[in-house]
Amino acid sequence: MKKHAVVSKIEDKVLAFSFENDELAEITSYTPADEDEVRLNGIYTVRVANIVDNINGAFLSYNQTTLYYDLDDNERGIFLNRKNDNHPHSGDIMLVQVKRDALKSKNAACSSELSIYGENLVLTYQLAGIGVSKKLSSKDRDRIKEYFNGFDYSMDELSSIELKPYGYVVRTSGAKASKEELIIEAYNLKAILFNILKRAETSKANVCLYDFKGDGAALINDIANADEGYIITDRKKCYDCLSHTNSLRTRQADIRFYDDDTISLAALYDLKKHIDSASKKNVWLKNGGYLVIEHTEALNVIDVNTGKSMKDKHSKERHVFETNILAAYEVARQLRIRNYSGIIIVDFIDMDDEEHKEKLMSTLKKELIKDPVHARLVDITELGLVEITRKKIKKPLYEFLGD
To answer: What is the residue range of 29's domain?
Structure first.
């Protein structure tokens, strides 16, 4: 697959536009790594502000930012001060990782289960064992798991932090890597983890110990593993940040700096048009049908319509089926572009043919699997409404774009 990404400033926001086979796939807010703020996947030393028993959670402070910490999901905290028990108390200093961006009135969420991201692997601290992407075949998964037989998981001891077990998750790109490449990367990630823990021993609160380089590392990883691709930006700070991150990798991406004064990068790639399209309520399909996309506080609703595309009444069932299939592709694409999460309800056009219904659900499920954010086709209700859930990680497009 061909992929490219464009990073540029639109009005007052720096955005990254990702394209797959020249079709827009995603728009994300891009923050260079050297800006002073809490970012997704960053690892920080924080102070416990207070415990809220009725929700079994805690609120932690990092400089002027408040983070939410779920006690149900974090049985083992990483404490940097002396303790008489394993439970967080006000004033404790902890090591945590941001797992979810702040969403509307909700604080950013953090966890003691740390993840260190590499090209082909993710190191999981406090989660032991070897996991392999479900997108890979069972044959590839078994082969890769054998690579780690005999891997040395031991680490040097720390004086004031109790070491926890750790493991790895092999990403989809790991199928292309050799055993030697995966093992070398595993030891490198292990060294990064130990360095973070070693520095944490003597760190006070409000220190960043690991930065995932904003969205840069994920962007580079996506492009570097494509069949063909590049990243282009007209922002010098973004270019420097991307280039630095890229230089530390084995498999590097093609990163270009755009400095042509004749036409702006935003105009060259028509970026404002993509923003306008991704913000509209109606989305047209190739055959004249269209989607109506509505966002509410509780859920997101998508209605599929034939529009002006109906021609021959005798072929109504076939035509409705083709419109629904086109809609399935577009629904999955729009969820990713707009970054909708939580509950999504899709009202496809009614069909009588059971085989057509099964084909529609199969197509939609296959497209949702391609989403890098976990999206799941749940079921069809008695009213024929299709239920989808998508994990909440980053802010939706409408939220970080504003008006």
So the answer is: 1-33+213-279
